[in-house]
Design a protein that fits this description.
The chain has 425 residues and is an alpha/beta fold. It is built from 14 helices and 19 strands. The protein binds 5'-deoxyadenosine (5AD) and iron/sulfur cluster.
Length: 425
């Protein structure tokens, strides 16, 4: 039995696709890159940008011919679009078999068995995760109301899970052999604010003390990366110094229209603080180009910020108006072509920076958590540094799940190549 997963949108979706992958492999499905041979197709969707939704709907329509050839094929829409459009999706595409919202990943087993199955957000259910990495949601939704963002309207305002519930789930995962836990939340640095039940720094520290090999967390808001958070990362070696803090724009005028609550000067000082307090951290970001009224001058400020800060990598997006958000009523004065040109320009700048930064790692040694075989060439293994950089190196499968020392020998924009030679001292 084979399964095909197509992922749209943000970082969070990349993680949830990994969880689906694991769930499906426990059900006996092998992953395939070819949707024509799949028995199950999942489209892991994102509502944040209209373009991602349109692409997912287009793909869903094109799957009708596969369903005609193979009526046993199961097609599911998972992720935020399932939550946002709900039953409408079955009306748009009668060949759709199931939908699952982001907090009901655990319902995939039932979904595959039924027809027109829907699992929306009322009763959260998370799968029991196996393997090396696991993902633990600590909060849902967001109360920041950035003017471009649909999340507060689709997922709702911030809802944190109780601290002891999260801790119990992490303990269970650790006992089951998980080596790396990523705590998830759309606005994770606000964790606990709605409950008066601790904060992100305290939950990270508690999970760290359990003795797990690595802990990560996404996505932080710049205003939430305070001294306590930086201190927690500095004092606990297993909390990865890999910080994803969306900047969104380098222009204070646009940041204010976006309702981000900070200025570029604050952000630059924050990055300096993080780089001073942590040993070789990686800092990554999200940027939106072409926000309504973004002038040439505003865009130059974003380019300047990108060049001055030198992010390890950046997710760069073209602004997409989302109905119901504050910015939706603002007049869009840039054409699609101009937005694409701006986006391509930033991609070029960032790729050069990422490449330059990766090249600087050649000759150095890093601790790498070995995640598995390189699917493109099985003699090679794949792992990640604590800064979340992917490293490919030769090695025996017995190393999977261990942290080993790897010397970096070559680098490209997105990957490092190295030689593994032992356990860390
Ligand atoms: N248009 C373009 N990008 C957006 N993002 C969120 N909403 C929009 C939108 N309407 C981007 C932001 C956010 C990331 C997950 O998606 O950069 O950090
Ligand atoms: Fe959306 Fe802003 Fe909340 Fe991020 S912080 S989820 S961009 S409203």
């Amino acid at each position: 039995m084979k399964a095909f997963i197509k992922t749209y949108g943000c970082q969070m979706n990349k993680y949830t696709s990994l969880v689906y992958r694991e769930e499906l492999s426990q059900l006996g499905y092998e992953m395939t890159e070819n949707e024509n041979e799949a028995d199950v197709i999942l489209l892991n969707t994102c509502s944040v940008r209209k373009h991602a939704e349109d692409r997912a709907l287009g793909r869903l329509n094109s799957l009708l011919s596969l369903k005609r050839k193979n009526p046993a094929l199961k097609i599911g829409i998972v992720g935020c679009m399932a939550e946002r459009l709900g039953n409408k999706l079955f009306e748009i595409s009668p060949h759709l078999d199931f939908i699952i919202s982001p907090n009901n990943i655990g319902m995939i087993k039932e979904a595959i068995r039924g027809k027109s199955y829907k699992a929306l957000s009322d009763e959260p259910s998370f799968p029991c995760q196996k393997g090396i990495k696991a993902f633990v949601p600590v909060s849902f939704g967001c109360s920041n109301y950035c003017s471009y963002c649909v999340v507060p309207y689709t997922t709702g305002c911030l809802k944190s899970r109780k601290k002891d519930e999260v801790i119990r789930e992490c303990e269970f995962l650790l006992k089951n052999g998980i080596k790396e836990i990523t705590l998830l939340g759309q606005d994770i640095t606000s964790y606990g604010r709605d409950l008066n039940d601790g904060n992100l720094a305290s939950i990270l520290t508690s999970v760290s003390k359990m003795g797990i090999l690595r802990i990560r967390f996404i996505t932080s808001h710049p205003l939430g990366m305070n001294e306590e958070m930086i201190g927690a990362i500095a004092n606990n070696k297993n909390i990865c110094p890999s910080i994803h803090i969306p900047l969104q724009s380098g222009s204070n005028r646009i940041l204010s229209l976006m309702n981000r609550g900070y200025e570029i000067e604050y952000y630059i000082t924050l990055v300096e603080k993080i780089r001073k307090s942590l040993e070789e951290p990686s800092i990554t970001t999200d940027i939106i180009v072409g926000f309504p009224t973004e002038s040439k001058d505003d865009f130059s400020k974003t380019q300047e910020a990108l060049k001055a800060i030198e992010f390890d990598s950046a997710f760069l997006f073209k602004y997409s108006p989302r109905e119901g958000t504050g910015a939706y009523k603002l007049k869009e004065d840039l054409s699609e072509k101009e937005k694409i040109e701006r986006l391509n320009h930033l991609i070029k700048i960032q790729n050069e920076i990422s490449f330059k930064k990766n090249k600087c790692l050649i000759g150095k040694e890093y601790n790498v958590l070995v995640e598995g075989k390189n699917l493109k060439d099985k003699k090679f293994l794949i792992g990640r540094t604590d800064t979340d950089k992917m490293v490919v190196f030769k090695g025996e499968p017995s190393l999977i799940g261990k942290i080993i020392r790897v010397k970096i020998e070559d680098a490209s924009t997105y990957t490092l190549k190295g030689e593994g030679y032992g356990l860390p001292t």
